[in-house]
Write a structure and sequence with these properties.
By secondary structure, this protein is of the alpha/beta class. About 35% of the residues lie in helices and about 15% in strands. The strands form four sheets. A six-stranded parallel beta sheet has the order 3-2-4-5-7-6, sandwiched between helices. A six-stranded parallel beta sheet has the order 11-10-9-12-13-14, sandwiched between helices. It is globular and about 70 Å long. The structure holds flavin-adenine dinucleotide, thiamine diphosphate and magnesium ion. The site of magnesium ion (MG) has 7 residues, from helix 19.
Length: about 650
């Protein structure tokens, strides 16, 4: 059958099972848009910025497990996609981006809207193609889908010149099957490594599973739980592993890493065996590599050989698909109980385990943790199948700490690139993937302003997502680093914004505001009852801090904990909040000295200094004082 290149694009997408694409038109992609009118079975979502298209495709992919598709024109359209492509790359999300390119004869002439987008995206794509002939379009698209979803998933870009879209050729789907002799996504682990792994698992006294996003990609939740149950092994999860192992699973200790649970990081440092399953030892997870889990042997089960021995040297590497590897291992794993190891871990929880913020008396102030804890509680008691999509910052970490994810794909967040502006468009993509689910956006007042234009996309499409803005009038996570490591000089972190309620209304959507904990429930109920997208401005305490925290470069168990006498939670006064140095645990000073030394000079950490004197900050413009709130019973809310 003879078709134009533009028609072949849509024929291929349909055969790949695509029913929705996210895009924005322009000159070099116009033939493809024109041909689109003949293919009503593919729904096109007109975004407001091409970055939004890539995040929507990414959110769609993460929510559904299928490949998400984004389309844009050449030049600025294509370069606007780069952040979304890099975001997908870092978190192994399968998306295919199709871009128009100037005519093949004009390539290299600095033609109007010409950018070498395959050149630009080499480091942030799993693979990319420049297609200059209609005959090559079908194979490029078929290979793009195959590469995006096989092995370790990732983004693939197909850049198609305008003349390749306009010219015609014979279209034969069958003969355009992928031909990729050098691509080996189906690696198999060596039998000798299985033996070594079994020996370590069956003889370990203090084993710990590190559960990552690879479990989700492999669909291996059941196998991981079986391993944990058979040998009674505790599990620590990464940020991207949240939900992959249910929060209520008795073996699940919680999140590891920079803002993970203190007892989880302590368990990692005390373990004699780490079994890393589909996680890549990110620096947010390991802290200082020189001091990381020094007493532990390490087994790494990983599909991408380039991840093995990259950050953490391991004793055994099982390279291949996690589920297949665990199916092979499980029958030979001995039943054990490890009672002493569990007793040590439970001891480590200590008072930090007591953090039922719901039980705290209402002081009249609203904390982000309240909002997220209550949101989790209300959506779960309503038995709503909910997906939460977070942006990047403090609210992201509070969501990870206080929302209890029970199901895989119930949390979507930008982990590796940490892309502010991700949440709203990714949530729109997730809603297209799962229209039957409630989709909540948890976003900071800073990040929301980066891509809030996509509210118009939600309105035009008539789809509903619920947006919870955690509005602290600060670029909160950066402010927190300034608080700890830059003597509270809040340079460029106080941030204003529009009236978010009026903004929502301007988009013909619903806007709500909540600044009291007692109003959270009714606000959530109102949001759920509305048919349209709802934007809620949760006005929270401005200078709250995410505890615990491992300063960048510090050892994993050198965590900054909420001080025992937390002035913010316990004082009755209304004065500016200041952390008195006398109340700082020594570990704060040690960790801070270590981090500052590593950060500023790239040298070894200096000897732990005396607790640093924390000076009172100059008051930034428009940043009202941190209020002292809550009663003595707030002591139990330590992390
Ligand atoms: C502000 C901020 C703070 C953060 N703080 C923390 C923190 O405190 N704790 C934390 O954990 N993270 C934190 N992160 C996230 C962190 O940066 C990483 O994104 C995250 O730790 C990566 O998790 P992962 O290794 O499980 O997932 P990924 O990065 O997705 O890695 C998954 C691994 O699984 C492998 N894989 C994929 N498919 C398969 C398969 N079929 N079989 C076997 N292997 C497979 C992949 O090759 C990859 O190596 C933070 C991020 C931000 C933005
Ligand atoms: C695109 C982008 N720019 C800058 C950053 C650096 N950064 C990380 S968190 C953060 C602050 C986020 O502020 P906000 O969205 O208000 O969330 P909060 O931390 O206050 O919850 C910044 C600027 C980033 N991650 N992404
Ligand atoms: Mg903020």
């Amino acid at each position: 059958m003879k078709l134009t290149g533009a028609e072949i694009i849509w024929e291929c997408l349909i055969r790949e099972g695509v029913d929705v694409v996210f895009g924005y038109p322009g000159g070099a992609i116009l033939p493809a848009y024109d041909a689109m009118t003949k293919y009503p079975q593919v729904h096109h979502v007109l975004v407001r910025h091409e970055q939004g298209a890539t995040h929507m495709a990414d959110g769609y992919a993460r929510a559904s497990g299928k490949v998400g598709v984004a389309i844009a024109t050449s030049g600025p359209g294509a370069t606007n996609m780069v952040t979304g492509i890099a975001t997908a790359m870092m978190d192994s999300s399968p998306i295919v981006c199709i871009t128009g390119q100037v005519g093949s004869k004009a390539i290299g002439t600095d033609a109007f809207q010409e950018t070498d987008v395959t050149g630009v995206t080499i480091p942030v794509t799993k693979h990319n193609y420049l297609v200059t002939k209609p005959d090559d379009i079908a194979r490029a698209i078929r290979e793009a889908f195959y590469i995006a979803k096989s092995g370790r998933p990732g983004p693939v870009l197909v850049d198609i010149t305008k003349d390749a879209q306009q010219l015609s050729c014979e279209f034969d789907w069958e003969s355009a099957a992928p031909k990729l002799p050098g691509y080996r996504p189906d690696l198999r682990a060596l039998p000798s490594e299985y033996q070594k792994a079994l020996e370590l698992i069956n003889t370990a006294k203090r084993p710990l599973i590190l559960a990552g996003q690879g479990i989700l990609k492999s669909g291996a939740t059941a196998e991981v739980l079986k391993l944990a149950q058979n040998a009674n092994i505790p599990i620590a999860v990464t940020l991207l592993g949240l939900g992959v192992i249910p929060a209520s699973c008795e073996h699940n200790l919680g999140m590891m890493g920079m803002h993970g649970e203190a007892w989880v990081n302590e368990a990692i440092q005390q373990a004699d065996l780490l079994i890393a399953l589909g996680m890549r030892f990110d620096d947010r997870v390991t802290g200082n590599l020189k001091t990381y889990a020094q007493n532990a042997k390490k087994i790494h089960v990983e599909i991408d050989p380039s991840e093995v021995n990259k950050n953490v040297p391991v004793d055994v590497a099982l390279i291949g698909d996690l589920r297949e590897i665990l199916e092979e291992l499980l029958p030979s794993v001995k039943k054990t109980t490890h009672p002493e190891w569990w007793a040590t871990i439970n001891l480590g929880k200590g008072d930090a385990a007591v953090r039922d913020i719901q039980a705290l008396p209402d002081s009249g102030h609203l904390y982000a943790a309240h909002v997220i804890n209550d949101l989790c509680h209300f959506t779960q008691t309503l038995k709503k199948d909910t997906i939460v999509v977070t942006d990047v910052g403090q609210h992201q970490m509070w969501e990870a700490q206080y929302f209890r994810h029970e199901k895989p794909r119930s949390l979507i967040t930008s982990g590796g690139l940490g892309t502010m502006g991700f949440a709203l468009p990714a949530a729109i993509g997730a809603k297209f993937a799962c229209p039957e689910k409630d989709v909540w956006v948890v976003v900071g007042d800073g990040g929301f302003q980066m891509t809030s234009c996509e509210l118009a996309t939600a309105e035009q499409e008539g789809i509903k997502v619920n947006v919870a803005i955690i509005n602290n009038s600060f670029l909160g996570m950066v402010r927190q680093w300034q608080e700890f490591f830059y003597d509270k000089r809040y340079a460029a972190t106080p941030i204003t914004g529009p009236d978010f309620v009026k903004l929502a209304e301007a988009y013909r959507l619903k806007g709500l505001r909540c600044n009291k904990r007692s109003d959270v429930k009714s606000t959530v109920e109102k949001a759920l009852a509305a048919k349209e997208t709802v934007v809620i401005d949760f006005v929270v305490e401005k200078e709250d801090t995410v505890f615990p925290m491992v300063p960048a470069g510090a050892a994993l168990d050198k965590m900054i904990r909420r001080p025992k006498q937390d002035v913010m939670l316990e004082s009755g006064s209304d004065k500016d909040w200041e952390m008195p140095s006398s109340t700082l645990p020594n570990v704060f000073a040690e960790a801070k000295a270590e981090a500052v030394a590593l950060n500023s000079r790239g040298k070894k950490a200096a000897k732990p200094a005396k607790p640093a004197k924390v000076t009172k900050p100059a008051k930034p413009a428009k940043t009202p004082a941190r209020k002292a709130v809550a009663s003595k019973s707030a002591k139990s809310n330590r992390r």
